[in-house]
Amino acid sequence: MSRSGKDRDTRVKTAKKRTASSTRWLQRQLNDPYVKQAKADGYRSRAAYKLSELDDKYSLLKGVTRVVDLGIAPGGWAQVVRKRAPKAAIVGIDLLPTEPIDGVTIFEMDFLDDAAPALLEEALGGPPELVLSDMAANTVGHKQTDHLRTMGLVEAGAWFAIETLAPGGTYLAKVLAGGTDTALLTLLKTHFRSVKHAKPPASRKDSSEWYVIAAGFKGRAEG
Ligand SMILES: C[S@@+](CC[C@H](N)C(=O)[O-])C[C@H]1O[C@@H](n2cnc3c(N)ncnc32)[C@H](O)[C@@H]1O
């Protein structure tokens, strides 16, 4: 996608009640080519392009029949899955409400709730080939705390993937600061044949988010 067009950038006047950082956020949002493209393509989030780009590179969605989307709201990733794997069963969960998407079962609840994994599994009706996690903890502004909280979600997603995936399946998760920590990396390498990190072009350069792609699930007996 072209990033040109600087001269056409929209300028945001600073409203009295808007803080400097929210003005910066709004300005960047208004001038972001992915935000514009998402509107044109009917995607609910610019995040849709991160999954599209990761799929272009790693063929994550090829032939999948069951997909779990952790942190589904507002639904951009699920729209991409629906489009690229039209027959796949999709089950998602989020703390926030998500507008319905055709053929997608959505739970509005905390993935860390003890009841959540069984509900997702039951709704899917069989083992997924792909578990996606774009979950991000609400940041509190304290770097270590934010990192630990988000990595806690990644780890919970990893265990869910290990407990539910079909052999050969993939776990894709958003991670922070260049990758996974050693314990999580060891866990993933034990259960998956390949573990890679990627930063798709749609992921902002100044954001510390990356994605980990654990592919080739070895199966529960082998792990
Ligand atoms: C970056 S957004 C996901 C965007 C989504 N992939 C899309 O394309 O529209 C991250 C989501 O993770 C959700 N989230 C964070 N913690 C969660 C938790 N414990 N359980 C469920 N969802 C959670 C947030 O509410 C938020 O909607």
Automatic annotation (TrEMBL):
The active site is at K174. GO terms for molecular function: rRNA (uridine-2'-O-)-methyltransferase activity. The keyword Methyltransferase applies. Its EC number is 2.1.1.166. S-adenosyl-L-methionine binds at G75, W77, D94, D110, D134. GO terms for cellular component: cytoplasm. It is found in: Cytoplasm. Signal peptide: none annotated. It catalyses: uridine(2552) in 23S rRNA + S-adenosyl-L-methionine = 2'-O-methyluridine(2552) in 23S rRNA + S-adenosyl-L-homocysteine + H(+). Its main location: cytoplasm. Keywords: Cytoplasm, Methyltransferase, rRNA processing, S-adenosyl-L-methionine, Transferase. It is an enzyme of class 2 (transferase). The keyword tRNA processing does not apply. Residues 1-12 have a biased composition (Basic and acidic residues). Residues 43-217 form the Ribosomal RNA methyltransferase FtsJ domain. Residues 1-24 are annotated as: Disordered. It holds the Pfam family FtsJ. InterPro entries: RNA_methyltr_RlmE (IPR050082), RNA_MeTrfase_FtsJ_dom (IPR002877), rRNA-MeTfrase_E (IPR015507), SAM-dependent_MTases_sf (IPR029063). Specifically methylates the uridine in position 2552 of 23S rRNA at the 2'-O position of the ribose in the fully assembled 50S ribosomal subunit. Belongs to the class I-like SAM-binding methyltransferase superfamily. RNA methyltransferase RlmE family. This is Ribosomal RNA large subunit methyltransferase E.
